[in-house]
């Protein structure tokens, strides 16, 4: 409350009683608000508890449990809710699938472009090799009567088989030996 000096005889008794009334009124109001707030909390707790029970019961119904207590109208309502939920699930699934397909198509285009660029590079390298080997072939033709062996095309399928483990080095060597055997020397009189 107050200090002892405030209650001294110098102060008048009326002020002391007024202060006492103010403090006691304030104290009563605090106690009243605590009681009201406790009452509202208990009411709020009861509401939340009832809501939890309803949600748990609905969850059981959605899982197919405790359906015996439902009326025909409630069962039809439950069926409509489940149908609606299934439609939403299917539409979301389709949306995700279409997005995935779109991303895969974009990736396919990028890979096709990369493949085309690599094919162009391979063709350019083959042309460069052919141009470099052509002057060498002309020099050999003039110096000897034997036709030079033509460049053997690089067998890409054989290399890919090698990488995948279906072929072996002996198969490639055998193929190149067969191709070399078909090249024969031509007599000089046939060249002129």
TrEMBL record:
GO CC terms, sorted: nucleus
Residue ranges of domain K-box in the record: 38-128
Pfam families: K-box
Biased composition (Polar residues): 131-146
Stretches with biased composition (Low complexity): 175-185
Secretion signal span: none
Gene Ontology molecular function terms on file: DNA-binding transcription factor activity
Domain of life of the native organism: Eukaryota
Region (Disordered): 117-152, 171-192
Designated name of the protein: FRUITFULL 2 MADS-box transcription factor
């Amino acid at each position: 409350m107050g200090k002892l000096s405030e209650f001294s005889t110098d102060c008048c008794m009326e002020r002391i009683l007024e202060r006492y009334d103010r403090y006691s009124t304030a104290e009563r109001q605090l106690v009243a608000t605590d009681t009201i707030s406790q009452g509202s909390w208990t009411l709020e707790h009861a509401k939340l508890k009832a809501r939890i029970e309803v949600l748990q019961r609905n969850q059981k119904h959605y899982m197919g449990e405790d359906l015996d207590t439902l009326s025909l109208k409630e069962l039809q309502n439950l069926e409509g809710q489940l149908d609606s939920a299934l439609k939403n699930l299917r539409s979301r699934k389709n949306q995700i699938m279409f997005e995935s397909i779109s991303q895969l198509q974009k990736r396919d285009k990028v890979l096709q472009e990369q493949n085309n660029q690599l094919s162009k590079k391979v063709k350019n390298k083959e042309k460069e090799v052919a141009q470099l080997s052509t002057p060498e072939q002309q020099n050999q033709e003039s110096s000897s009567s034997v036709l030079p062996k033509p460049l053997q095309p690089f067998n890409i399928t054989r290399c890919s088989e090698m990488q995948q483990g279906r072929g072996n080095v002996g198969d490639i060597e055998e193929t190149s030996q067969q191709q070399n055997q078909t090249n024969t020397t031509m007599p000089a009189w046939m060249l002129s």
